[in-house]
Amino acid sequence: MAERKLKTSYPKDMALLPTRVQKFWTVVLIAALAAYPYLAEALPSSSFWLSIGILVLIASIGSLGLNLLSGMAGQISLGHAFFLGVGAFAGAVISSESSRTLSGIEFWGLGLPWWVGVLGAGLVAAIIGVVVGPAAVRLRGLYLSLVTLALVFLGEFLFVSPALEPITGAV
Q1: Residue 137 and residue 132: Cα distance in Å, rounded?
Q2: 3-class DSSP state for residue 106?
Q3: Is this prediction's pTM over 0.85?
Q4: CA nearest to 90, candidates 113, 129, 63, 118
Q5: Which has the closest alpha carbon to 95: 54, 150, 156?
Q6: From residue 149, how far is each of 125, 132, 154, 170 by CA, in Å?
Q7: Which of 125, 150, 120 shows the shortest CA–CA distance to 135?
Q8: What tens digit of pLDDT does each residue of 108-163 get?
Q9: How many C-beta neighbours within 10 Å does residue 5 have?
Q10: What is the pLDDT of residues 53-80, one digit of tens each?
Q11: What gap in Å lies between CA 37 and CA 53, rounded to an integer?
């Protein structure tokens, strides 16, 4: 007779990786992701495969955050694109060199290593989240979704704003 796997407490029910099989495959996935850049570099069109891997990882950051908020907390959020965009622009400014765009705009750039750009992008997005958070934490349901949707429209406006051209490179 098969053993029944009943969950007898709320923490056991909410465990992220409750079984050994799930833990094993998570470790295998993390190891494969760590080895991916080295394996992709050996392929004939390595820059293509590296860019595909980078795009997959960027999308996974957004989806993991959305899963945490919608799946675990049960809240609706439409503002993930805003925070992802803020982090992308912050990472680009931190890790790229100053240059002039094709339209003649002097683009800011600090020229720091890529890992500083990744940490800085997360930090800038987190700071903006802390600024927006106290107002958004008091809202539920439709009102929360409207505030997060407003963040997307605010971000779309700011990302193409002429006043922020040196940061965003917008035309």
Answers
A1: 9
A2: strand
A3: no
A4: 118
A5: 54
A6: 16, 13, 9, 22
A7: 150
A8: 778 888 889 889 999 999 999 899 888 888 887 788 888 888 988 998 888 888 77
A9: 8
A10: 888 888 888 888 888 877 777 777 778 8
A11: 8
